[in-house]
């Protein structure tokens, strides 16, 4: 019995570390988004999204389907660095839905000379071929 308890206690830190690895990777993905946006680089920003026609982005005008359509909307809404401003995220929740799928809720804020924007987002992020990608984004 003592041996079993010892093995359970020994394994507990490794289980906690494994649970944190996806969260660290997802935080890194969001940090990459922030850095790319703040450099005015929409192409690099979009590498965090699943490059698929099945990507869904839901914004104030409703759903957009597909990676290219999402990029086109970003380019139309944010044609230059003045319109883009400086992006900041605040993660409120990060919950695993499966070992390779996470649900993330947070706040976003754009500081801009033409007027700040802010809102909330919910993301579904999935590990695809070893990389974490946003497969669904609802930002309002």
Automatic annotation (TrEMBL):
<feature type="domain" description="DUF4440">
    <location>
        <begin position="26"/>
        <end position="134"/>
    </location>
</feature>
<protein>
    <submittedName>
        <fullName>DUF4440 domain-containing protein</fullName>
    </submittedName>
</protein>
<keyword id="KW-0732">Signal</keyword>
<dbReference type="InterPro" id="IPR032710">
    <property type="entry name" value="NTF2-like_dom_sf"/>
</dbReference>
<dbReference type="InterPro" id="IPR027843">
    <property type="entry name" value="DUF4440"/>
</dbReference>
<dbReference type="Pfam" id="PF14534">
    <property type="entry name" value="DUF4440"/>
</dbReference>
<feature type="signal peptide">
    <location>
        <begin position="1"/>
        <end position="18"/>
    </location>
</feature>
